[in-house]
Amino acid sequence: MRVVHERDGTDGVLASDVDVAASTLSRARGLMFRRSIPDDYALVFAFDDAAARDVHMLFVPFPIDAIWLVDDEATHVKRLRSWLGLGRARADTLLELPAGAADDVAVGDVVHVRD
Description:
By secondary structure, the protein is mainly β. It has one helix at 24-29; strands at residues 2-7, 10-15, 17-20, 41-56, 64-70, 73-80, 86-98, 110-114. It starts with a strand and ends with a strand.
């Protein structure tokens, strides 16, 4: 599984080590209590519909980039600080990546999660 960013007709891989938070427990835990994540890592939260989705950084000791998607289009991109970061935006898919991984992603860009 990979996370691919499409912009101006070119594809770039944001992550090739991808986990999906599918259960209620894995969604609630997210990245909490981990000491770090690999540079090519993404945690994907897929939902049935687009709605306001929150991200908090409590018990996450490293910064991350979060991308909120609706139908594979970025609706919001934000760097979240360790421990104190908060984010909220409309999404049917939410991606959590290492800080810096989403530097080139802008609102309106297409981001796919591919098998």
